[in-house]
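Lab meeting, action items carried over

1. Structure of the two-component assembly. Owner: GW. Status: complete.
Input record:
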Amino acid sequence: MVTKSQKRPHTATQPTEEVEVVPLTRTSDEPPAKQVKWTNKTRVLVLAARGISFRGRHLMDDIFQMMPHAKSDSKMQKKESLFAVNEIAEMKNCSRCLLIEGRRKRDVFLWAATVARGPSVKFEVENIHTMAELKMTGNCLAASRPLLSFSPNFSDEMHWQVVKELLTGIFSVPNHHPKSQPFFDHVYTFSIVDGKVWFRNYQIIEEDGALAEIGPRMVLNPIKIFDGAFCGQTLWENSTYVTPCAKRSLLKRVKAGKYQQKLASKAAYEASRPTESTYKVDETEEVFNTIEKEEEEWADAGKEKKRFSQVKKIKKKKKHSKAKA
Amino acid sequence: TWCSSDLQAYNCLIHFYKRVIVMTEYDDLLATSAGYESDSSGGDTDEELKEAFAAGLIKPGLNVIGDAPEKKVAKNNTSAMKQKLAEMQKNLPWIERLDLINTPAPLAPELAFKEDLHGKERATVLKQAKAGVSLEEDVVHNDFKREMMFYRQAQAAVMEALPRLHSMNIKTKRPEDYFAQMAKTDEHMNKIRTKLLSKEQGQERAEKVSKLRELKKYGKKVQIEVQQKRLKEKKDMMDEMKKIRKGQGGNMDFLESKGKVKEGKGDNRGAAGKRNAKDKKFGYGGKKDKRNDKKSSDDVSGFKPFNKGAGGGGAKAGRGGKKLGKGANSRPGKGKRDKMKNHNKK
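Predicted assembly:
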């Protein structure tokens, strides 16, 4: 953690025309100057609930690290209902909350809420890639203010507008926040593809548009929007949402279905096979054929006998010749 | 007259059919009690069903009369959401929020090139795998395109936001000497750098190897060509020389230096040079060509004419060639010698 004394002053954001007259001596007991410029006092509580796996935890750490206006707390117990998070937020004087929940050590859910009486959204988080992956080659200042970019379909429907407002309120760092760093060197993109919000974080390498991905990466699948924070009426439901358990069971069923399918198709084939000949057979035609057939058979047998006898003769000849020689 | 067993069977049959009748009556009872009418509005008769189907009221498949399962309607309380939105918006100035709405920036040529390259690679891979998936459906290529879209969206945001910040007199570019805590540690960045380097090196190595392979192939081709050319030249020279020896006259052009007069054996220094000189002077000097060519085998000028039997037919001239050629010491043939021989051995 960078302490206040180690940080450089925000010379970049202050206009250079004003020259502050600093007094020659100053006592150390004086309280620090009040931050007049910092007006937007939103704080975000970043929290995890039990049952989270390493991936969810790393994601939470990455998000927390990038937000200087965030406060963390210990893991929430399962016994307490979600509503208890409101109390924790009140205690920490936070107006927004990001709760990361895990289920079965596999699925990760994200709650984004405005604590007092605002709406809350529950997302399912998929395709998590943390900042530590070696393919994410970008880097940025830890506490610089991000630019937020939303794709145009956020203004299409009401629920997307609510989601946009919430995400903006949570992820934007207040201006002149004491822990924030100057300069703008990274940008968050939120895009809606297939009804899900895709989150990417890019570093601005050149001012003309060269970017490198920093991470983390995630896909937020909205499930429901509630009227209150972690409680209240459902304002919006996602009709196309399938729970991860349902997805897994469907996959398993498809795999199991293979064997059943094979058996069924086999049975169907057996059932549909014609037991009698498909061409027209007149049984009276065979009445006169019996003797000829037998003769033919005998003739065939005779031919075979002849062949055999010939073969025997040849073999005998060979034997004799070999014996002689 | 019937015997008892037949009677029994007959009775059973009657009972069976009766039961069937009873069952059908029972079904009718059930049907009527449930409220199903024989002429419902959908139509029981065939014509009515056909009309309904044509009109689109009934779909193909098993149609069951009754209550359809309740369709789950997803909640979408737009008005309440609007209200909530109005409450949430605090009317902060843009500088506090820094949010933008962008469409993706236009595709730069480098990005277009990269996308093309990726597309070609995936096409070859799919062909080899024979997966039967076209490039449009290929998941990897679609992923790549999607990432390109997000990248372009971020670019558009940057293009819009930075000038706006500059207009507010806010510095956006971090100077080179500004050291501060970064999101990723220096060790991590070093790891990334080494990984990238190793990737590059691997690629370079692969390129080198493939180039060498190409060169080998090319070199081999060139070698074969040169060898064949030399053989051809030698053959031509020998033919000319033969012609001259047989007296037909030929080109002596090869004696003139063609510019590239190659020595037989390259090395001319030391012991090898001495050997070379001796070979040229004494060895292999004009290899005797003891093989017939066409003209020499057709040549019969060396043979004497055969006159036995005052020319017993011109045909004999060829056949008698053997005896004619021998002269005084001609040996009689096998038949004659056999006759002369005494077969009285036993």
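2. GW to write a short summary for the group page. Key points so far: Chain A has a mean pLDDT of 85. The helical segments of chain A are 54-66, 84-92, 158-171, 244-272, 290-324.
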